[in-house]
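User: Here's a chain of 331 residues. Predict its fold as tokens.
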Amino acid sequence: MKSPKLGSSLLYLTQADVINTGLTDMEIIEKTKITLKAHGTNEYQMPPKMALYPVVDSFMHSMPGYVPSEGACGIKWAYCFPENGKRGLPQLSGVVVINCPETGFPLCIMDAAWITGKRTAAITAISASHLARKDTHEIGLIGAGVQGLEQLLFLPLVLPELKTIKITDKFKDSSLRLQAIIQEKFPEINVVVKDTKEEVVRGSQLIVSATIVLAQPNPGVKDEWIEPGTLICPIDRNSMWEWDTFLGVDKFVIDSEEEFNFFVSAGKLPKITPKIHAQLGEIEAGLKPGRENDTERILNLNIGMGIEDVVVGKEVFDLAQQAELGILLPL
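Assistant: Prediction complete.
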């Protein structure tokens, strides 16, 4: 087993090392459920994000967290720069640092991009298991990038009646590429590319938008397209949605009230906000109800919590040691 010596070394994991641990999507869902339940029962530590905005539409977030039941303590330093594509770089990246909760010493530093993509999609999948209609058979995706791919890899795992996935993106080649990947992964599901957002939204029981987060939202989805009983999951916050849609839903569910309030106070969301029905962890813990009938329009806005990254990161660290992955670096 390749393990760091406490206080003398740490384990460094590249993105390839993280992937090669073999952690599966279902295992990530289960770890994320544990994290959400700990959040819902207040068995965690997690101050709100601290943020930098060096460039318009970019962000850098520090996201510490501690979940005692998992022995998971650490921080994610995440950043998103949408213009990175012009430099041949991914727009979203970061690192996760895992610390010893008894001494504070760092144990591991690893790439965060894979973890971020996976745990974000796991949250949507858990949301769908509580908030989507049980007969959900048609879903829509706006935004066929990396996060869009992860969303479509996870959602079929929790939607047993799913028959059709509709995809749209401003770049049709991206939609077609994603269609091919998902169709091969889930041959029993009909995966189709649509030219417009309206075609994707109308008739869908669940809609995910996974475009970029804009400093100035540019709503592309009209409220009138959204049918009763729909679950809306905006990974890109309100960039793609009319704020009246947020205000008009029957239930508004968030991951963290503290994170949500921080974004409102920082001017990243409008000051007039919907009434919060529940935090997702409260629903996972059985403290508050999820969907209660097939006509409720529900919107689930997940800002993102550091405890999610730290718990998955701790599992990656444990698996990497067993597989003797990574490089030991002196402190």
